[in-house]
């Protein structure tokens, strides 16, 4: 890195850059909450829920403590429990499956397509009498093929719960993530396209009955204070995080466009040396992550690290091969596309503040690696 200005090297997720841009608004929101003296399920949460529901194009949103618990609450709301099965994918963060385990149900995995999303043609083969939910994962910022998933779900009368934890603002056929299924689930973990300054989550729905049920489930099952109609849990979005999210929501579309622009820069510079992400027809990918594929992944990652570039792998071990889920009985070879892709994926720096100069540096290093690699073979 001799002679290189280190400020050119992009950070991985850009949290500090984002905070710097909106610092005054964040400080004002924090002061507003502190002065209110109300810190749990107050005006900030209600206002954010209304704003986020409007943004997603649904009737209701219910704030909760995390994306994992958003998924668990959604499963609870549709009555999933012990002995039930939930169809999902294995190339996801373990929390997707943790939520299924939390309610006592069993995950059933289907393989994926080349765009990292649920292979809709394989769903039918794993539906059983125990199937209670289909849970597609809108991975890396792109929505799964919801037309076909919805058609299959309707044919079998199975509700859909969208794992939209990486897809804030993503669209498919003009509809946003979280508006397709019976329920949509979001994480506001700090690195998300819409992230708070801690853990947070939300569930979206158009169903008033599910909305009312969710508001009780997240708050000990209370219909009103000290009167518990059902068994619930403590999973509440606090006022501080809601106030911060209200500020950030105003910037989400702008930030997503900046991510899309950055993805275009990456693609133009790298499409002839590795497999770049593909935006599906009728989709609007919001690039929560920019994930390339190469059989040289591990060696390339070391090379980039030596050049000062942070990369990650989302996710190197599919859930069906994780030790924690051995009891499900899956083995190597059961999900061949998932397993192949897991060995090739590499996430490059991606956030709204990443610069064209920074991306050019990352691309230059990647191209240099392949040039050297080709000369040595």
- Class from helix and strand fractions: alpha/beta
Percent of residues in beta strands: 5-15%
How many strands in all? 14
Largest sheet: 4 strands, mixed
Distance between the termini: 25 Å
Report the oligomer.
Answer: single chain
The topology string of helices and strands comes to HHEHEHEEHEEEEEHEEHHEEHHEH
Number of domains: 2
Strand order of the largest sheet: 1-9-8-5
Which CATH architecture of the largest domain? 3-Layer(aba) Sandwich
Residue ranges: pLDDT <50 for 5 or more in a row?
A: none
CATH class of the largest domain: Alpha Beta
Estimated radius of gyration: 21 Å
How helical, in percent, are the residues? Answer: 25-40%
Task: Report what the structure shows.
Helix content is 38%, strand content 14%. The protein is α/β, with parallel strands linked by helices and 377 residues long. The protein folds into two domains: 17-249, Type I PLP-dependent aspartate aminotransferase-like (Major domain) (Aspartate Aminotransferase, domain 2, 3-Layer(aba) Sandwich); 252-376, Aspartate Aminotransferase, domain 1. The strands form five sheets. A four-stranded mixed β-sheet has the order 1-9-8-5. Helix 3 packs across helix 6 (208-217) and helix 8 runs parallel beside helix 11 (356-376). The model has no long low-confidence stretch (mean pLDDT 96).
């Amino acid at each position: 890195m001799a002679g290189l200005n280190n400020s050119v090297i992009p950070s991985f997720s850009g949290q500090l850059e984002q905070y710097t841009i909106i610092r005054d608004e964040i400080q004002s929101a924090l002061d507003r909450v502190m002065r209110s003296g109300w810190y749990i399920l107050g005006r900030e949460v209600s206002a954010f829920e209304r704003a986020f529901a409007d943004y997603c194009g649904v009737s209701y949103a219910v704030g909760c403590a995390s994306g994992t618990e958003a998924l668990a609450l959604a499963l609870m709301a549709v009555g999933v429990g012990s002995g039930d099965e939930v169809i999902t994918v294995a190339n996801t963060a373990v929390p997707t499956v943790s939520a299924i385990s939390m309610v006592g149900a069993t995950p059933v995995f289907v393989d994926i397509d080349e765009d990292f999303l649920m292979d809709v043609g394989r769903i039918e083969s794993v539906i059983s009498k125990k199937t209670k939910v289909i849970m597609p994962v809108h991975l890396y910022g792109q929505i799964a093929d919801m037309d076909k998933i919805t058609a299959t779900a309707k044919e079998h009368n199975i509700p859909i719960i969208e794992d939209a934890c990486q897809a804030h603002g993503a669209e498919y056929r003009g509809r946003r993530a979280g508006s397709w299924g019976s329920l949509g689930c979001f994480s506001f973990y700090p690195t998300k396209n819409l992230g708070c300054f801690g853990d947070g989550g939300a569930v979206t729905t158009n169903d008033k009955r599910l909305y009312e049920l969710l508001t009780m489930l997240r708050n000990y099952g209370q219909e009103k204070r000290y009167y518990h109609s059902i068994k619930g849990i403590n999973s509440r979005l606090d006022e501080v995080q809601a106030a911060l999210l209200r500020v950030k929501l105003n910037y989400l579309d702008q930030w997503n466009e900046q991510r899309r622009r950055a993805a275009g820069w990456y693609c133009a510079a790298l499409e002839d040396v590795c497999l770049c992400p593909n935006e599906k027809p009728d989709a609007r990918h919001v690039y929560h992550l920019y994930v390339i594929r190469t059989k040289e992944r591990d060696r390339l990652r070391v090379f980039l690290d030596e050049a000062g570039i942070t990369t990650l792998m989302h996710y190197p071990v599919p859930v069906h091969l994780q030790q924690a889920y051995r009891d499900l009985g899956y083995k190597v070879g059961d999900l061949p596309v998932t397993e192949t892709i897991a060995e090739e994926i590499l996430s490059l720096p991606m956030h709204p503040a990443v610069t064209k100069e920074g991306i050019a540096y990352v691309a230059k290093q990647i191209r240099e690696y392949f040039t050297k690699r080709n000369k040595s073979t």
